Amino acid sequence: MESSRFGASFSVKQCRNLGIDWQACLTWALDQGWRRFRLMSYWNEIEKQRGIYDFTELDRQLELIIARGGAVTLCLGVKQPRWPEYHWPKWARDMAKKERDAALMTFIEAVVKRYRNLQTIVSWQLENEALLRGFGERIDIDRKRLRREFDLVKKLDPHRPIIMSTSNSWGLPLRQPVPDIVGFSYYTVIHSHGTYHRTPHLIWLNRLRAWWLRTVEQRDVFVHELQLEPWGPRAIWEMDMAEQDKSMGPDQIARNLTAAKRIGAYPIDLWGLEWWYSRALQGDTTAWSAVHAGISEKS
Predict the structure, then answer these.
(1) pTM of the model
(2) Helices in the chain by DSSP H: which ranges?
């Protein structure tokens, strides 16, 4: 697996949702050759009680990846991949905003200080899709706070690049903070208002955006989240395989990978690792086989 070209997001929360053992899933991914990962530092799991940190689970994920010579982008902040998007600890939810923001800054500082000396961590991702409105629970969009978070991470670790996807699948970083590396999502099939829809993603438009970011903004750009798992009327674990395949069968997996490669914004971090493994455990390897074929195919 070429880590310069392909990686995968990995979430222990999604493993629990799917009823699979996260260590077995991550080990399987490493056995399949994956060496580039995006990991999460979920605030509500690490600091369940204010001021008391438990990094055991995240430490273990990093240990497994370090043992195989892998590389990690570590997510920071309250907004990180997987539902409910905003991972507030219970104790922070009802705080006054000023106090809650201060607690978030303290948490980010604790995470960065703990891991900034690990060479395995090659970049930070700050607040996943930070300015995306209308998706998630307990939404709190605050550009001024985002700037303070960015400045804090740069102060604590001035040498590692910060990745951000500051708006949504279509955004450009035209206002501060401007990240070192810009990531964007690439979703093609979603379910809303009772039916499946294809999104208006066009290869040429994303190529143009990548060109703009490189030449005008002078920033590296990559696909930080390529949809390779279903988006249906219910959660994945509540759908049977036939329903899952309506939005992400093997043919759609192949089309998504082909389109993402044609954009030419590498590396491409894939979204759905936990689901491929879950399907394989159920005796169906079609999803993983399609992924493997797509990333192995020369482009």
Answers:
(1) 0.95
(2) 12-18, 22-31, 43-46, 56-67, 90-93, 97-115, 143-156, 203-215, 241-248, 250-263, 273-281, 286-296
